[in-house]
Amino acid sequence: MGFGITIRVQGPYALFTRPEMKVERVSYDVITPSAARGIIEAVYWKPAIRWVIDKIHVLNEIKYTNIRRNEVSEKASTQIAKRIMNGANDPFYLSANDNRQQRASMVLKDVDYCIEAHFEIVQENAGPEDTVEKHYNIVLRRLKKGQYFNPPCLGTREFGATVELVEDTRTIPPSSLTGSKDLGWMLYDLDFSDPEDIRPRFFKAEMINGVIDLTTVGLVG
Amino acid sequence: MSNPIMNRYEFVLLYDVENGNPNGDPDAGNMPRIDPETGYGIVTDVCIKRKIRNYVEIMKQDEAGFKIYVKEGIPLNNQHALAYVANNIPVPSKENAKNVDAVTLLKLRKWMCDNFFDIRTFGAVMTTGVNCGQVRGPVQINFSRSVDPIVQQEVTITRVTVTRPEDIKTMGRKQIVPYGLYRVEGYISAKLANDLTKGTGFSEDDVELLWTALTNMFDCDHSASHGKMSAQKLFIFKHESELGNAPANQLFDVISISKKDEKVTPRNFSDYSIFVDKDKIPAGVSLIERL
User: Fold this and answer.
1) How far apart are CA A160 and CA A148, in angstroms?
2) Cα(first)–Cα(last) distance of chain B, in Å?
3) What pLDDT, in 10s, does the model give residues A98-131?
4) CA B243, B244, B245: angle at the middle one, nearest 5?
5) Could A147 and B245 be called an inter-chain contact, meaning their C-beta atoms sit closer than 8 Å?
6) Contacting residues of B for A148, CB less than 8 Å apart
7) What residues in chain B have per-residue pLDDT under 70?
8) Where are the transmembrane segments (chain A) (predicted)?
9) pLDDT score recorded for residue B93
10) Tell me, what's the pLDDT at B88?
11) Is the Cβ pair A96, B241 closer than 8 Å?
C-alpha cells in the first residue's frame, strides 16, 4: 500500500442502513466499506481513481438508540415535472401532510473509526497527467486543511462526520473491543460496472480486536 | 438570479425554548425528544428544515424561483407560475417512462433546481429509471442538541367544551420543556452549489435568504405547542475558498457555551455565557455574527 491513507472519522450518531431493513431503518453494527468509501470520496475523488477500503478500526463500543421521524412517502417525480413543464395542470408540490409516514431508525451512537484505504488508477479514465503521486498529494493536502467537496456524513446526511488525517498508523488508539466477533453478512459495496444492473456485493464481516480486515475477504453477489 | 456561491460555509445556530415543545417524539407520546442516556434534548434536522421551508414560503409567496416542493397542507395558488417554463420536452409513453436519457434528465434537474428553493438548498430524490435522478443540495444540517440536559414536563389541561352532546368534559395533555438552549450545526458545500454537473445553482441570494430564515423562522412558527422559541445567536464561518480553509469541527469548537452559575438551573438565555474563541479561528476563515 504505497499510496494508502488513514483517516479518523467520528460523530455523535451514524446510520449505515441494512438493505434488508430499509423501511424502519436499522443500522449495521459498524460502518460499511461502501459508506467509508463515500466519506473519502466526499473529500477527494476523480473519475481517474478508485478508492479501496483496506481496514476498518472500530474504536468505540457499539451502542444503539432509536429515533422516529415524520417522513414523506413520495419522491419527486420526473414524469410530473415534465408534464408541468409542458403546461399541464398537475399539483406543483408534494404535500407532506398527505404523504406522511412515521418511520423509526435504529441508529448508532458515538462512533469513532479509523479507516485505512488506498486508491487505484482507473486506466480507461486516466490521462498521462494522472499520476499516483498527484492524487495522493491532493488528498493529503485536503485532509490536512480540512477541505472537502461536500461535507462527509455517517451514512445519512443529518449525521455529520468529523474527518481527520491519521499521519502515522501507529498512533491509532487501541480499540475498546477485544476478541473476535462475527458481524454476519454485510454490504461491501455496490457494483456499478453495469449501470443498467447495479448489484450489491456482500462479505462475511469478522472483527478481531476491533479491526475488520477487508484485504482478504471474499465477495459474494 | 445571482451567481452560485463560491465559498464554503459552516454555521452554528443557538435557539431556545421556553415552556414549549420544540420537537415531539412520536415514539414517546409526543414528549420532547430526549437522548435517553444523557438527558440532552434533541431536535431533528428535518424539523429545522421544515421551518426553513415554511419561512421561505411565507416570505416569497410563490415568487418565481422560490417555490417550495415539500409542502405542509394545501397551498392556495399552486398552478400560477408555470408561464415562465420555456422548455419543450415531449412526455414519453408509459413503457419508456423508465428510460429518460441523460440530457433530458439534466434539463429536468436544472428546471427543478431553478424553480424550487428547497430542492436547490437541501436536494431531492427524483424518481427515474436512471441512477442519477438525485439532487444533493449544498446545505446539510445536523441534529440539534441542548446545551444542558432538559426536563420534560407533562401539563394537564382541561377542555370546557365537548364534541358531541353525550360527551363528558375531557382532559388534555401538553408536553413542555421549561427551558432549553439548543445548538445546531450545519454545513454549506460550495461545490454542490456551483459544480457544473452536480451543482444546484444555490446562489448568493439564496444563502442570504437562508441566514434570514434561520434567524427569523421561529417567529413565523408560533403555535400552542411550541411555546416561546427564539433564535438567539447565529454564527457563520465563511471560508475564502470553495473547498474550505479549515476542518469544520475545529470551527465548531470556536463557539463554547457555559452556564454562568453552575448552581442555578438555567431558565433564561442570560443564564448562559457564550464564549467565542477568536484566537482559534484559522486564517482564511471569517466569522460573521448575524444575531
Assistant:
1) 13
2) 26
3) 888 899 999 999 999 999 999 999 999 988 888 8
4) 135
5) yes
6) 189, 243-244
7) 1, 73-100, 127-133
8) none
9) 40
10) 47
11) no
Cβ-Cβ contacts under 8 Å, A195 against chain B:
130-131
pTM for the whole structure: 0.87
Q: Is A105 helix (H, G, I), strand (E, B) or coil?
A: strand
Within 8 A of B192 by CB-CB distance, chain A residues are: 149-150
Task: Assign B158 to helix, strand or coil.
Answer: strand
Burial of B63 (0-12, 13-18, 19+ CB in 10 A): exposed
Query: Domains in chain A, start-ordered, CATH in brackets?
Result: 4-66+106-220 (3.30.70.2660)
The closest alpha carbon to A24, from A110, A97, A102, belongs to: A102
More reliable by pLDDT, A197 or B173: B173
Among the listed residues A51, A84, A64, the one whose alpha carbon sits nearest the alpha carbon of residue A16: A64
Distance CA A165, CA A161 (A): 13
Q: Give Cβ neighbours of residue B114 (< 8 Å, ≥ 6 apart).
A: B1, B65, B120, B201
- Contacts B36 to A, Cβ<8 Å: 65
Residue A159, helix vs strand vs coil: coil
Q: Nearest-CA distance from A46 to chain B in Å?
A: 13
Touching check for B248 and chain A: CB below 8 Å? yes
Residue carrying C-alpha cell 481496514: A55
β-pairing verdict for B9-20 and A63-72: unpaired
A45 pLDDT above the threshold of 60: yes
pLDDT for B132 equals 52
Q: Does B82 touch chain A (CB under 8 A)?
A: yes
- Smallest CA-to-CA distance from B17 within B179, B245, B192, B253 is with B179
Using DSSP, state whether B248 is helix, strand or coil: helix
> A154 versus A88: which is more confidently predicted?
A154
Asked whether B235 and B215 are in contact (CB, 8 A), the reply is: no
Question: Residues 154 to 193 of B: which have CB under 8 A from any A CB?
Answer: 185, 187, 189, 191-192
- Among chain B residues, the shortest Cα distance to A165 is held by B247
The nearest alpha carbon in chain B to A150 belongs to: B189
Nearest to B46 among A69, A85, A104 (CB): A69
When the pLDDT of each residue in chain A is averaged and rounded to a whole number, the result is 91
Which residues of B are less than 8 Å from A100 in CB distance? none
**What is the tens place of the pLDDT at every residue in A53-86?**
999 999 999 999 999 999 988 887 777 777 777 7
